[in-house]
Amino acid sequence: MKGIILAGGSGTRLHPATVAVSKQLLPVYDKPMVYYPLSVLMLAGIRDILVISTPADLPLFRRLLGDGARLGLSLDYAEQPVPNGLAEAFRIGARHIGDDSVALVLGDNIFHGPGLSTELQRHARDLTGCVLFGYPVRDPERYGIGETDEAGRLLSVVEKPEKPRSNLAITGLYLYDNDVVEIARGLEPSARGELEITDVNQEYVRRGTARLVDLGRGFAWLDMGTHDSLVEAGQYVQILEHRQGVRIACVEEIALRMGFIDSAACYELGLSLAKSNYGRYVMDVAVGAS
Questions:
Q1: How large is the average pLDDT for residues 73-85?
Q2: Fewer CB near the last or first residue (10 Å), C or N of the chain?
Q3: Which domains does the chain have, with CATH numbers?
Q4: Is the model's pTM score more than 0.85?
C-alpha cells in the first residue's frame, strides 16, 4: 500500500498565523503538525509516501522531511497549486500509486488510541473496495456522516445532513483499492468546482464495497482547522505526554518500533536534536531498545 499526505490549501481559517507558512508546518505542542499524519501512515506499515502541497510550501516540507531515508521511508513530493478538492490527490498521485492500493490522510488530522497500528494494518491488508474511519460526534450536522448496516457496510455518506441518520463523522483517513484512481479521473467537479471525496466514497457505496470502521471510545480524532482546535490539540498532546512519559507521533521512535531503522540510526537522529527534550527522548528510546 502507498501513502499520500494531503497538506495543501492556504489555511485561511488560521490567518494570520498561516499567511507565510503552511498550516501543516505549524507546531502542535512539541512537533510539526505533519508529523501526526505521517506517523499514522507509518503505523499502518506504509513506507512509500507522497506529500502533496502548494508550490510555495513544498521546499519547506522537503527541508523538514527530506527523502525519508533517515526514517527508513521513501518520500516524494507533488504540487497542488490550487485546492481543487481532496479527491484531486488521486489524480496528482496516480503515478505514485501505480497498481497499488493507497491510504490518504489529511495533513491536519491527529489519530491516537490503543492498538491503532494493529487496526490500520489489519484493514490495509488485502483491501477490497474502501475502508473509512468514523468517529462519534455530538454535532453531526457539521460533518460528513456515514450510515452503516450491522456488518459495518457503508450505506450512505451525507455532507452536513439536516437530519443525521447516525453520529459517525467521516474522518480524514481513507483506505482505497486501486480502483480509486479511475474513479477520481471520472469525477465531475462539484458546484464549488472541486473534486469531492464524498463522490468517491459514494461510488464505492454504490458498488457495495465500502466499509466504515467505528473508532469508538478510547480513540481520539482531532482536526486542527481553527485556532481553538489547534490549541486544544496541543493541550491534548501535552497532557498525555506529561502524564504517560511517552511522545505521541514521535516518528523516529515509530520508525524504530516498526523495524524501519535500527537503534543506532535512531540514536543518531536523537543526537541531532539533543538540545531539545524531544531529541533526548529519542536517544533514550534508542538506548532502551539496544
A1: 96
A2: C
A3: 2-249 (3.90.550.10), 262-289 (no CATH)
A4: yes
